[in-house]
Each structure stands twice: as C-alpha cells, then as structure tokens.
Amino acid sequence: MTRHVVAAADELAPGSSKLVMVGGREIVLFNLDGEFFALANRCPHGGGPFCEGVVTGLALSDGPGRYRLERAGEFIRCPFHGWEFEIRTGQSYCDPRSTRARQFNVAVEHGDALAKGPYVAERFDVSVDKDYVVVEV
Amino acid sequence: MKVPFAGAIDCDLHLPSPSMAVLMRHMDDFWREQFVTRRIDRMDFQLTSFPPNTPLAMRDDWRAPAGEGETPLDKLRREALDPFGARIAIGSILHGAIGLYNEDMAAVICSAVNDHLARDWLDHEPRLRGSILVMGSSPDHAVAEIERLAADRRFVQIILPVMGDFLPGKRQMWPVYRACEKHGLAVALHAGSTYRYPPTGSGWPSYHVEDYIAQSTAFENAIVSFLAEGVFNEFPDLRLVCLESGFTWLPTLLWRLNKEWRGTRQETPWLDRPPADVVRERVRFSLQPVDAPADGALLTRTLAHIGSDELLLFSTDYPHAQFDGDNALPEGLPADLQRKIMIDNPPACYPRLAAEAKEIAP
C-alpha cells in the first residue's frame, strides 16, 4: 500500500464528493459529515461511474403505501442501473453478500506529517497549517 | 406417465357450466321472474375464453355425454377422479356471469353457480372441494359472496380470471384478499379474461393461438402486480394460485424480477427482499398444462431454474386436452418431486386442506 495525498481536506465540504486520480485509477472521495471515504469510480455491477451518481438515503417502508427516507446522504446510487451502495462500506444494499464496491482506506493527516514523503510535493502545495486527504492504494 | 400412487390432490378440475334452468333453482322469485320475462333464461352465458367447441377445451374421449344411466357425477368419477386415484379434487365452474356489466345480475348468477356447486356436486362426492366464483369487477359483491360461503369449509379458494378490469394486485381488490386471508381461502387466478380489454398490450389478436399464448404474459403481469402493490406484505398468510398458467416461463420472470428490483427498489420499498424469493414462498402453479418438450431432461432443467420443489400443484385440468390417456404426469419427474407435487404441496398451499389433514391425523 502506498499512501497518496489526493486533496486538501477543506476542498470537500460535508456532503460533497470529488473524483480524483490515484496511480492511474479513478477514485471518488466522499465527505460524510466530516468523515472521508473513498470508492473506486466503477460500479461492481455494470461499471457505472459513481462520480455521476446521486448521493441519497435509504428508501424504507413499514408496509405498502408507507414511505420514509433514512440515513440521508449515506448511499450512492449508480447512474447506470440504480443500484445502491453504502458509501461507508461499499456494500450493495440489495445484495450485500455478493456485491461490494471497491473501497480504499482514507485518512486526514496534518501537512507536517506528510512532508516527509516524496510523492507529495509534485501534486500538492503542502503547507503545515493545512490537513490533507490521504488515500491508500 | 401414469400417476404412480393413489392419494393425489387434483388442484384444477373443471365442472360443466350449468344451464340457466339449473341455476334458476338457486335464485329467489325476483330474479327467476326477471330471467324469464327478459327472455334470457335460455342464454348460456358462456365465456368467450375457452369456448367449449374449441379442441383444447375438451378431450375427444371426454366429450361424449354421460353414458346410459350415468349421472354427470358418475361421469366425473369415471373420467377424472378414479383413473388418477385422487383423494381430493378441487372443482371450479368458470361461468360467463363474471363478464356481465350488470353487477347485481352477475352477483346473483355467481351465487347460484356456487350454490349449484355445493348442492349438486360437493354434497354428493366427498372427494370434491370447490372454488368460490367471484367477480373481480365488483370487490363489494366478491366480499359479500366470500362471507356468505366462508362457513362451508369445502370451499378452499376463490377463483378469478387472470385478466379482468384492472391488474389484480390493485388496492381496490384488497378487501377481497382480506376476506380470503381471514377465512383461510387461497386466491386462484385462472387462465382467461372477461375481455373488457384486449388480451395483449397491443390490441386484439386475430387467432385463437395468439390468445392462448398471451395467457402467460397475463400471469406474469398479475404476479408482478401482487408483488409491486404489496399484497404479500399486507396479507402475510395469503397464497396466490395460478391455474392453467403453465410454468415453463417462470425462470425468466424470476431472473428479471430480481434484476430490475435492484434498480427500482426505491419505488416500492416494502419489497424488502429479492422478489423471486417471495414468489417461491407465496405463489403456486397448477401442473397442467406442462408446456414443456417431451424430453424429461429439459423439464428437469426448467425446474432447477425455478429453484424450488414446492411451487407445483398436481392438476389434471380435466376435461381440457392437456395429455393423452391417464398420463397426467410429464415424463422425467423424479419420484420425490412426484410426491411433493401430488401429496405435500397442495395442503401446504391451501390452509383449509392443511386443517383437514390435521383433523384426520391421530
């Protein structure tokens, strides 16, 4: 695993997402209420680009004709076939056993800690008073 | 192949449609007078679905009238009950009354058909059980008829044509299903239509073969309607029985249901598990017509795709021409599946048959 700095933490407001390239791969970063998560930008079902999907909640029901939305903002709906994935875990909602979106570890680290790595300087303007989003690939 | 052992439960057997003269015995004075003065007492009110002259509607060797000194019930015993060793046979009368626009008249005829079934058939043959004929176009009348007859435990299901005025899962039908669930009656949809609408989505076909093939699409529509509207959620003990539906089309429906559900689930969030699982749990299919090639290996593969040995219910579909001689079972059915289809699955589907079995058991 190599750790890649992919964004400055303040580039992603809570509730927003961002497509980044890491080692030639497309990865979508999500900020869920200040927590960061990263999924491969490729739906494991049909290859749809998650970056174009709708961030949504879970439609649930207590019976026919009764609707409610829970956990708003915690799911991404693939733009190709509408499959829903939990952003936190990459798990498909309908078929959690067999379908899981590729997930990457994400951390936010202080600029100080990152300055040591050779992979930082090229792409990011590192400064010690900023936090960076780091993806492990 | 022949039925290899006695004790089967035949879940789809047709009793002859009675004449108005017979039905009028089961009506009150007002309606008897109405039918006579309006000169409709000699109309036979046949359904356009499966008119009796069509070759499939009756096997040639069963078309002959009852023999010398033989009652219609004797003929039924000789042709449909005895040869297949049936312990129980569920008889239905599909009468054209369900297509009438006059709801009160239709309801009166349906009630007379049901009373005729009880008095003239069930009272005389302990192996027979019955289906309550109701009008899908008039849920109020249907509920009243179910309540009127519910105490007669020999009725084990209601019966409706698969194509009516609206898709059968719609909420206007729910009072009917509530009554069925309350009284332990299954809901049977039988091939056929009231022809209020064309049997295809693109209008009226020209030929009988088109109508016949269109039935399986109608059953697909009905099953999906039950699922999407949430009938199985609302009525957790209700069973849907598809009669004369065929079942070889089922694997592709199950595959497509699960596939499309994943992307459209949000519309119907009460469908909270793969719909094919719900079908396997709650929907049953009569065996005849088998609609499979004669090669038993192909049928075995189809059944493997369906993925359950609990879905099929033995039926002869008497007197329709679905098989020759006494070969009511298709070739290639493994012995344990034969037993499931003929003995185990019907009581598991019909609460009233299960209750009977319990009473008989020590």
List keywords for this structure.
heterodimer; A: Rieske Iron-sulfur Protein; six-stranded antiparallel beta sheet; three-stranded antiparallel beta sheet; 9 strands; globular; B: 362 residues; alpha/beta; TIM Barrel; eight-stranded parallel beta sheet; 42% helix
Describe the SSE topology:
The complex is a heterodimer of chains A (137) and B (362).
Chain A: E1 3-8, E2 17-22, E3 25-32, E4 35-40, E5 54-63, E6 66-77, E7 84-86, E8 103-110, H1 111-114, E9 131-136
Antiparallel strand pairs in A: 1-9, 2-3, 3-4, 4-8, 5-6, 6-7, 8-9
Chain B: E1 8-14, H1 20-24, H2 29-37, H3 60-63, H4 72-81, E2 86-92, H5 103-121, E3 128-133, H6 139-149, E4 155-163, H7 174-183, E5 186-193, H8 208-229, H9 231-234, E6 240-243, H10 250-264, H11 275-282, E7 283-286, H12 296-306, E8 312-313, H13 335-349, H14 351-360
Parallel strand pairs in B: 1-2, 2-3, 3-4, 4-5, 5-6, 6-7, 7-8
Helix pairs in contact in B: 6-7, 13-14
Characterize this entry briefly.
The complex is a heterodimer of chains A (137) and B (362). With 137 residues, chain A is an all-beta fold. Chain A is built from 1 helix and 9 strands.
Structure description:
The complex is a heterodimer of chains A (137) and B (362). In chain A, a hairpin with a 2-residue loop joins strand 5 and strand 6. The radius of gyration of chain A is 16 Å and the shape is globular. Residues 114-128 of chain A have low confidence and may be disordered. Helices cover 3% and strands 47% of the residues of chain A. Chain A has one helix at 111-114; strands spanning 3-8, 17-22, 25-32, 35-40, 54-63, 66-77, 84-86, 103-110, 131-136. The relative contact order of chain A is 0.25. Chain A starts with a strand and ends with a strand. Chain A has 137 residues and is mainly beta. Chain A has one domain (3-136): Rieske [2Fe-2S] iron-sulphur domain (Rieske Iron-sulfur Protein). Chain B has helices at 20-24, 29-37, 60-63, 72-81, 103-121, 139-149, 174-183, 208-229, 231-234, 250-264, 275-282, 296-306, 335-349, 351-360, and strands spanning 8-14, 86-92, 128-133, 155-163, 186-193, 240-243, 283-286, 312-313. Chain B is 42% helix and 13% strand. Chain B contains 14 helices and eight strands. In chain B, strand 7 (283-286), helix 12 and strand 8 (312-313) form a beta-alpha-beta unit. With 362 residues, chain B is of the alpha/beta class. The A-B interface holds A 45, 59-67, 81-84, 92-95 and B 171, 229-231, 233-234, 261-266, 268-270, 272, 274.
